[in-house]
Write the C-alpha cells for this entry.
Amino acid sequence: MEHTIISELENLKYVMSNSCADVDFSLYSPVYLFTTENIKGYLNLIDVKDKSVLTPTASGDHAFEAVLRGAKSVDMFDINLYARHLVCLKIAALKSLSRDEFLDFFLIRNKDNQNKKVFRKRIYEDKLRINLDSYSRNFWDMAYSLTKSGTILRSTGLFYNNINDKKTQTRINSYLENDNYKYLKDNIDKLLDINFYNSNILNLPKRLENKYDLILLSNIQAYVNFNSNDKLENIKKYREFVKNDMGKFLNENGKIVKEYYYCDSQQSLDNSCNYKIKSISSLVTNNDNYAPDVVSIYTKRR
C-alpha cells in the first residue's frame, strides 16, 4: 500500500478536527490508546513463551503482553498507519518513564478526575521525542504543533475515547502491574525490530513473510464484510478465511485467536473440531453477575 509521510501529515489535521464517535478503520483513522479486550484473561489460557507471535498493531497492548510472557518474536499488522506511531510512542515511553509516569501520560483520568498530565508536551519533548525514529517523530511533532496543550491533543479526534481508567487497564493488561512493567522495560529491545505490516486483514496473507505459533486477530471479524448483507454468512466466510488463508502462516499446532466476543455474543457459531470456545471474565467487570467475554481459538492440526 503506497503512502508517504506527507500524506499522513496532510490527513492528520483532518482526523484531529473531527469527531470519532463512529469506529472507522482505514489508512488514516483515530487510534485506541489502550485495548478494549481482556487480553490478560485469554493469554492466561495460551502458552506464549518462546513462541513467534503476530498481533494487531492497535494500541500495542497485544504485543506488550506477548513480550511480557516470553514471546520469541512479535510482528504487527494494521490498516491504520497512525497505529504504528502510537505504538512507537508507547515504546518510547516504556523506555524512558516509570510506571506511574507512563500511566499519567496516557490515561485520560487519574483517581478522581481529569488527568492534567495526559500527553504533557514537556514530557514528550524532554523524554519521549529522542527515543522515536524520524518517521514517528515527524508525526507527533505535527500533532503537538496543531494544539496548545497535551490535554487538548488527547481530546481531539485522533483518539477513540475507549475505557481509559487505571483500575480497568491494570486489571486487563498484565504489563501495567508494577513488577511486570519493570520486566517489560528491561526487555524493550524485543520490540525494536518489529515487522509492521500495513494491511487490512483480507490482504494480509499476500504480505506476510513469516510463520507463527500464535496469531491474534482481536475483534476484526465484526468489521469484515464479504459482500454479503447476511451477518451469519459473513461470519462463516471469515471463519473459513482464518482457517484456509491465515492458517497457512501457522506452524504445526499453532493457534489463531480468531475473535474476541463481548459478553458471550455469537460464540456458539464457532463450536467445531478446529475451533474451541474459552470464557474469560468480562472486560467491563469481573463481577459474576455479568456474562463472560469469550474467545474463539483455532488450532492447526496435521
About this structure: The chain has a mean pLDDT of 87.
